[in-house]
Design a protein that fits this description.
176 residues, mainly alpha, 77% helix, elongated
């Protein structure tokens, strides 16, 4: 009897560790997919002249002047790079804010990311025009894009975390 209790307790701990790893991997996948989706949307917005800046303007044109950057290959490479960078952004959200169940935290997270890229990191990206020189349409478009991106990342991770907690509570109640 005592051995089965220890075994069940150990099994429960292993299951919790597996769920945490699974949640983290899903969160990182959410980051990658979110980066891909919203950078594609950003690229489309650039081509339809809703914004003066494209993902490749920020990432690739600042570091190299190769001719391939101006074509479709530059778009695809920049979209993939943003997907990889977005894994780190999702990891930061997972580590700091996963317990916040509000959609508004994702909105704020997107606004913070916009501020970091367009204000703090602007000197690093030599081809990125200062925000004060952007047309108001570009500012509104990029703000909206980052708000949607932050909401996607934040709400997806928080919802998944909360869903996992609810399932754990139900399992604990059914075991008792």
């Amino acid at each position: 009897m005592e051995v089965s209790f220890v075994t069940k307790k150990k099994q429960t701990e292993i299951t919790k560790q597996e769920r945490t790893k699974s949640l983290l991997s899903r969160s990182l996948m959410t980051g990658f997919i979110g980066g891909i989706i919203w950078s594609v949307v950003g690229t489309i917005m650039y081509y339809f002249n809703f914004a003066e800046v494209a993902p490749k303007t920020i990432l690739l044109r600042s570091w190299t002047n190769a001719k391939w950057i101006n074509g479709w290959l530059g778009d695809i490479v920049s979209i993939l790079i943003i997907g990889v960078i977005s894994i780190l952004i999702a990891f930061i959200y997972y580590g700091l804010l996963k317990k916040v169940i509000s959609m508004w935290m994702g909105v704020v997270y997107g606004l913070i990311l916009w501020g970091i890229i367009f204000y703090i990191l602007q000197p690093v990206f030599s081809t990125l025009t200062p925000v004060v020189d952007f047309e108001k349409e570009t500012i509104v478009t990029t703000l909206g894009l980052f708000i949607l991106y932050g909401t996607f990342i934040g709400y997806s991770i928080s919802f998944d975390y909360n869903d996992m907690r609810i399932k754990e509570k139900k399992e604990n109640q059914s075991q008792n």
